[in-house]
Amino acid sequence: MMHYHKLLLEYAAIPVKEIELQYGLKGLYKNGHIIIDKLQSNVQKGCVLAEELGHHFKTVGNIIDQTKLNNVRQEKIARRWAYNKLIPLSCFVSAYEYGCTNRYEVSEFLNVTEEFLQEALDRYIEKYGNFVYHENFIILLNPLNIFEKRARRYG
Questions:
Q1: What angle, rounded to 10 degrees, do the helices at 103-110 and 114-128 form?
Q2: pTM given for the model
Q3: CA-to-CA distance for 121 and 129, rounded, in angstroms?
Q4: How far is CA 136 from the centre of its chain?
Q5: 3-state percent breakdown (helix, strand, coil) of the chain, nearest 5
Q6: Distances in Å between the alpha carbon of 118 and those of 18, 25, 63?
Q7: N or C: less crowded end of the chain, CB within 10 Å?
Q8: Tens-place pLDDT, residues 37-85
Q9: Which of 117, 147, 132, 143 is nearest to 47 (CA)?
């Protein structure tokens, strides 16, 4: 099931309406309601809905004016919520175990756009640097690659 439909079900109490948005907008959050541009693919809608849910749970006020530093910070907070929701580190391991070998395959496997995947990787790089240890794996974030950690043998 696509993220869009999963999120709609999981957060059914939050009203979501699909309409044709103007000015290149993909989604909006206002007064407890989410509006999604209906002309997008379901994969795009899932990424946008996750971000708008991030605004619902993590930001306050009108932050459309992205020339204001506080609004930029709140936008990052909402997007970080979306990345953590749709692409937690464990998803990279799942994609690796499935056999994905490049970003296109990873984004297809994870049902996110390549742009969303790259933005998530950028945020993880900000947080962790170029790699992170997760469970039994080393996730190289730039360029994206995964290695299974091996136990050292002495003797």
A1: 100
A2: 0.89
A3: 10
A4: 23
A5: 50, 15, 35
A6: 26, 20, 23
A7: C
A8: 999 999 999 999 999 999 999 987 766 667 777 777 888 999 999 999 9
A9: 117
